[in-house]
What does this fold into?
Amino acid sequence: MQDARIAYAGSTLDRASHRRIDASWLDARLRDEASVVVPLWRDRSLIAEDARPRAVTLNAERAAAALTLADEPVFLGLDEEDRAWFACDLSRHDEDRLTGLSDGARFQDLGRVITVLGRGDGARLAYARAILHWHRRHRFCGACGQPTRSSQGGHMRECDNPDCRTQHFPRTDPVVIMLVTRSDVDGGACLLARQKQWMPGLMSALAGFVEPGETLEEAVRREVREETALELGQVLYWTSQPWPFPYSLMLGFRAETTNADALLPDRTELEDARWFGRREVAEIRAAGFRLPFRGTIARALIEAWLAEAPAGGEARDKQVLHP
It folds into this structure.
C-alpha cells in the first residue's frame, strides 16, 4: 500500500527514461523557456516562506541564469503539461551570488519542512536532492581514480579514462524500518526505541541497513534480534518511502514478536527500548516522550497500528496524536 501520510512520495513526473540518451532533445529542452529548473545549494532546497512554505522552481530567464551557474544539470522527467524538469546544483557558488534567483526565498534543509510541504513539491525536491548529492560524491571513478562525467541526462557517470570507461549509476541504500508488536497483553503493544544522539524524548520504530546477501525479511529479523534480543513470527511488508538523506529507501514492515518478555536492548545501539500500549502511545507526550515527525514512515507505521481495532477492543482515532 502507499500511505498518503508519507512525505517525499507520490511524484507525478514521468521520468521518461528513453529521453535520457537523446542529447539533442535534452539540449533543446534545456533551452526551452517552458522547462522547469529545481535549484539546490549544498543539499538545500529553495523554499519560499509564504503562509505555507512552498518549493520555488525556476523557468525562463531565471532558469537560464541558474543553468549558467550549474554543474551538470540532471533531467528529472516530464510533467502533465509536457514540460521538462531539471535539477541543478549551485553548490560551488557562495549563497550571496544566488539571491537574485527568487524574491523572498532562501535555501533550506528539506527535512525542516517535511510536515508542511505539499506532497508533489516534497517528492520532486527529494528526487532532486538525492541524485545531485550522488553526483557531488562521485566525481572520481571508484575503479581507477580518474574523473567521471555526467551522462544519460544525469542518470549515469562515466569514467573519462579511455582504458577504464567504468559506468557508475545513482546509489540507493535500502533500509528496513519495522514496527514490532505483541498481542499477548490487553489491547496489544508496540515497541518503540531511541538512540542517544536523537532529539530529547524521541521514540521511534527500529531500523537498520540491509546487508549484502540477505532478504528484506531476513534484515528485519536480524536487526530486531541484534538490537533487542527479540525473535519474530510473522513479518509483513507495509510500504516504502524515499529518504533523501542522502539517498536511502525506507522499506516499512510490521512484525509480531514471539518472545516479548525477553526484551533486552543493546546499549551500544539503543539508549532505551520499551513496550507502549495504545493508550500510552496516544498520550506519549504526557510521559515525556515524543513520536517521529508527521510525514515519516515511522510515524505512519505507528499511526496505522494505533488506528487498528485490537482484539476485543475499539480502534483509537489517530488524530489524538500531537504533531
Notes: The radius of gyration is 22 Å. The longest strand covers residues 232-243. The chain has two domains: 17-137, 173-316. The chain has a mean pLDDT of 93.
